[in-house]
Amino acid sequence: FPVRSPPTGTNRHISPSANVLCSRCHLPGCGKLYKSYNMVIELSTQDTLEYKYHPVPSRTLRFKVKAANDAHLLLSANANPSEVDPVVEIFIGGWSNQKSAIRRDRTKPDKANVDTPDILNGGEFRGFWINYQGGLIEVGKENESAPFISFVDPNPVQVAYFGICTGYGAAGEWIIEDGTKISTYDNLEYKYLPTPRVALDINVRCNHNAHIALTSGANDTSPMYEILLGGWENTASAIRYNKEKPDKVRVDTPNLLTSSDHKYFRISWNNGLVKVENKERVILEWCDPNPFAVTHFGVRTAWGSTGYWHIEHVKDAEIKKIG
């Protein structure tokens, strides 16, 4: 489980815990097994208005598929990528169930191509995982830690959606990691779904103005989301887009924060829905009509406030459980 070195003054530890053309034929319509670790971050922020950025959890998609051959997956930044949008295609059991491959932007030659005889079975489900973190794409079998195919992408796709399809004589039944069941037909048409949702559990202790940024890089980016908790002298909270006013949503939250003990919040983002909640209620919620792939978060305090933070990445299976 790769962990970047923490900034000075921080402590980190890890605790277990639309149809498109298929590039194989160009005819229309035709982790490592990471052991569900949570990353816990403890840090302090000064009265500087400067965000400190950290990567969001590594992304891993786990699924089972029952198909005789040609289980195809596509990773993209949006829900209906055009023919010119950057994508990563993964072919499992292609070439009559003899090979698997990774392809970039529907273009040959393949970035990786390996022999995988009889990797699929039309009579039983076979489990796989795909890890995509930064530019590293890895594909492996369920209960095996080593990938059977991988590719390091020098220009990573900001993955927010995945598509699935089958073809070349094979229909497929799929079970995605959250239990979602999907059928695909012998038509090479991708069905798109959001990638596994991610969230942060935050416990923060400060007088006021605990700010969280969600970005697509390890710095301020455009676009970006800002969540302002206990602003305006601890009387209101808001969600802001690209650091611009007016706020997308602002609500009164008197005495939301305190310097005497940590206050708990869950920050989540799913297909553009940015939400802040605690154990009692949803505090803030705004849906971005043009969502982007969040890869990093930043925290800061300001306006006379210093903060002490305990931040934990939430496992996908725990998204619906608060507290």
Protein model, in words:
The radius of gyration is 21 Å and the shape is elongated. It contains two helices and 25 strands. Helices cover 2% and strands 49% of the residues. Residues 1-39 have low confidence and may be disordered. A seven-stranded antiparallel sheet has the order 1-2-25-16-21-22-23, with no helix packed on it.
Notable characteristics:
323 residues, mainly beta, Jelly Rolls, 2 domains, 7-stranded antiparallel beta sheet, 6-stranded antiparallel beta sheet, elongated
Helical segment count? 2
Overall average pLDDT: 80
Q: What is the number of E strands?
A: 25
End-to-end separation:
25 Å
Decide which structural class fits the backbone.
Answer: mainly beta
* Helix and strand sequence: EEEEEEHEEEEEEEEEEEEHEEEEEEE
CATH class of the largest domain: Mainly Beta
Basic shape: elongated
Q: Which consecutive residue ranges, at least 5 long each, have pLDDT under 50?
A: 1-39
Q: What's the layout of helices and strands?
A:
Elements: E1 11-15, E2 38-45, E3 52-55, E4 59-66, E5 71-76, E6 87-93, H1 94-97, E7 99-104, E8 107-115, E9 126-133, E10 136-141, E11 149-152, E12 161-166, E13 172-176, E14 181-184, E15 191-194, E16 198-205, E17 210-215, E18 225-230, H2 231-234, E19 236-241, E20 244-252, E21 263-270, E22 273-277, E23 282-287, E24 296-301, E25 307-314
Antiparallel strand pairs: 1-2, 2-25, 3-24, 4-9, 4-13, 5-6, 5-12, 6-7, 7-8, 9-10, 10-11, 12-15, 13-14, 16-21, 16-25, 17-18, 17-24, 18-19, 19-20, 21-22, 22-23
